[in-house]
């Protein structure tokens, strides 16, 4: 299996999860009242585990493809069926919601809860996920603007299609990037400092993920505003010594491979 947990996670209904979450939150509020809002999140989740015997912190999820393998850790799983992600920040952001959503996708469960101890009043939204792997593995591949003449273009395309067929679309872009970096030889080989030029002089170096000398690769997950993002990629090309950017956009229904050439 490409993505799996060591211990099976039980799928429960929304009503069952709401009941579990209500019970957990009673303990969470008591912990917050006793500890205040200034500690790191690990303090709160460890205290939760000491208060309940059904809490598993740092729940491991194995992510693999070919010879690539890594482990992701959900903050807390309660009663083998309730995913919780804890934060200790001033305010929750869409990025925090997306992180928990990513775990729900990997575990193939429908309901989770995000809890922020760091705000003045505890934030604790529900996060729901109805998407399943079999649905996320069904996507269109668009390669009309992909230049296979550049080094490693053909094998990168083949690898990425196989990877996304294996894992499905919708996961955080960083997961696909990590697997691709491993395939290309690791960070020491793939990450390169490229000069950035202003109107009159070289300004600094910027680190890019590359597939070959002078060719960068960029992964995104955009369903809207792709045209606007392309403008930024072309501006980037104009101000660097890069000769091309390979752009892979992993949308929810299509994966688009496009090569942008510099001057």
Fold blueprint:
Elements lengths: L2 E3 L8 H22 L5 H11 L3 E11 L2 E11 L3 E6 L6 H14 L3 E6 L9 E3 L4 H4 L3 E6 L7 H15 L5 H11 L3 H4 E7 L4 E11 L2 E6 L5 H13 L5 E7 L3 E8 L2
Parallel strand pairs: 4-5, 7-12, 10-11
Antiparallel strand pairs: 1-2, 2-3, 3-4, 5-6, 8-9, 9-10, 11-12
Helix pairs in contact: 1-2, 5-6
Tally of strands = 12
- Helix-strand makeup class: alpha+beta
- Which residues sit in consecutive blocks of at least 5 with pLDDT less than 50? none
Order of helices and strands: EHHEEEHEEHEHHHEEEHEE
How much of the sequence is in beta strands?
Answer: 25-35%
The global form is: elongated
Radius of gyration: 21 Å
Question: What portion of residues is helical?
Answer: 25-40%
Biggest sheet strand order reads 1-2-3-4-5-6
Terminal CA distance: 44 Å
The residue-averaged pLDDT reads: 96
Q: For the report, how would you describe the main beta sheet?
A: 6 strands, mixed
Number of helices: 8
Key attributes of the depicted protein:
single chain; 263 residues; alpha+beta; 6-stranded mixed sheet; 8 helices; 12 strands; elongated
Written account of the structure:
- With 263 residues, this protein is an alpha+beta fold.
- 36% of the residues lie in helices and 32% in strands.
- The chain is built from 8 helices and 12 strands.
- A 6-stranded mixed β-sheet has the order 1-2-3-4-5-6. Strands 7-12-11-10-9-8 form a 6-stranded mixed β-sheet.
- The radius of gyration is 21 Å and the shape is elongated.
- It starts with a strand and ends with a strand.
- The model has no long low-confidence stretch (mean pLDDT 96).
